[in-house]
């Protein structure tokens, strides 16, 4: 009986550790995207995105989807930044509020701040935003398939 109890505890611990590992791996992909953005490394940021992606953000045209969705968002972001004199943009993620992994899908909600310079002057940017993402795990690991950015 004691061996069965020990075996049950070990199996439960391994299950919890595996789930924590999947959550960490999904967050690593989110961090890869943000780090790529922060370091102006478009290639690294886009490597975190699935080819088919859907994005909702707070600048026109507000929605990008389908093949190259993340690339289209990057192009629109750069056009918006140029038009508005935005430089030195940095996204800072807070502690995730939710990282759920079910099979090969993950749902992530993380608070975020967006700071930048506008026409050479530091701004408050956007504080208290929420970055919500859906990721899919395939043969190459976790990739972002959808995300939204919303701020108060």
Condensed summary:
It contains three helices and eight strands.
Give me the CATH fold name. Nuclear Transport Factor 2, Chain: A
Task: Count the domains.
Answer: 1
What does the overall shape look like?
Answer: globular
Radius of gyration: 18 Å
Helical fraction equals 25-40%
Return the string of H and E elements. HHEEHEEEEEE
Helix run count? 3
Q: Tell me the number of strands.
A: 8
Give the termini separation. Answer: 56 Å
Q: Quick check: average pLDDT?
A: 90
CATH architectural label = Roll
Task: Please render the helix and strand layout as text.
Layout: H1 2-38, H2 42-47, E1 49-56, E2 63-67, H3 69-83, E3 86-93, E4 98-102, E5 105-118, E6 121-122, E7 126-138, E8 141-150
Parallel strand pairs: 1-8
Antiparallel strand pairs: 1-2, 3-5, 4-5, 5-6, 5-7, 7-8
Task: Give a structural overview.
By secondary structure, the chain is of the alpha+beta class. It has one domain (2-150): Roll (Nuclear Transport Factor 2, Chain: A). The chain is 38% helix and 43% strand. The chain is built from three helices and eight strands, in the order H-H-E-E-H-E-E-E-E-E-E. The chain has helices spanning 2-38, 42-47, 69-83; strands spanning 49-56, 63-67, 86-93, 98-102, 105-118, 121-122, 126-138, 141-150. Strands 1, 2, 3, 4, 5, 6, 7 and 8 form an eight-stranded mixed sheet that branches. A hairpin with a 2-residue loop joins strand 5 (105-118) and strand 6. The longest helix is centred in the first third of the chain and has 37 residues, at 2-38. The radius of gyration is 18 Å and the shape is globular. It starts with a helix and ends with a strand.
